Known about the structure:
Oligomer: single chain
Order of helices and strands: HH
Structural class: mainly alpha
Amino acid sequence: MNKSNFAFGKWNYILLAIGVVAIILGFALMIGPGSTETHFEPDIFSFRRIKLAPAICFSGFIFVIFAIMYKAKKKDNNETK
């Protein structure tokens, strides 16, 4: 099969995987105990759950968009001759 028929190249898939891992990591950092009617959990407002995890998720989504838009430079054989 001709590689020019594929929409993504090898680097696109690698960058896409990195972005998806970042998104999963961000959501995993948001996980924690929640408050109930009888017990208040102050960890809900921790730096990790309010600022760090959403920032990692957001950067992962931006990275995925970049991975989709990334176009590798093609090597032209005519320039070397």
